[in-house]
Amino acid sequence: MGRLIRGIFILFSLILMTAALIKYNQPSFEHTMQKNPDLVYAEEIGGKLQQTKFTQKIIVALRAAGYSPDSTIGYLIESPNNQVVTIQLHNLDEFDKSTESEIQYIVNTIAKNNNLQMFIVDVKLIDVH
Q1: For residues 112 and 123, is the Cβ–Cβ distance under 8 A?
Q2: Ordered DSSP codes for 86-128
Q3: What's the gap between Cα 55 and its chain centre?
Q4: Which of 1, 48, 73, 118 shows the greatest Cβ crowding within 10 Å of its Cβ?
């Protein structure tokens, strides 16, 4: 009977030590959950857009150029090479390539002045008639 108790004790001790070794030798969950570099970039740019008041600067510049932008602007930031800004314009009778180019130029000039990468501009026309 003593051998059986001793055998159970040794077996239990081995299981406990194995479990402890497995637990303490695994990398922590935080280290294995590394952030996607594009997600980190998007978070950084989001902060920079707020810090530089980028949206407000675009709205003011577009109004100064004679456009009627909505008071909100949408962003889709996937990477430095894939940044999209969506601008909604009111009361625009004609929208052609030159209008699109002018708005693209305004946005990217503001981006450059604020040390940001260039944006792809997506203009949406809103009919308020």
Answers
A1: no
A2: EEEEES-S---HHHHHHHHHHHHHHHHHTT----EEEEEEE--
A3: 16
A4: 73
Task: Tell me the residue type at 19.
Answer: A
Q: Locate tokens 């194995």: which residue?
A: 18
Q: In 3-state terms, the chain is what percent helix, strand and coil (to 5)? A: 55, 20, 25
Distances (CA, A) of 129 to 13, 23, 60, 90, 91: 80, 66, 23, 9, 8
Residue-wise pLDDT tens digits, 22-38: 767 766 555 445 667 77
Q: Model-level pTM?
A: 0.68
Tokens matching residue 113: 């002045």
Rounded-to-integer distance, Cα 20 and Cα 28, Å: 14
Q: Residue 69 corresponds to which amino acid?
A: P
CA–chain centroid gap for 28, Å, is 25
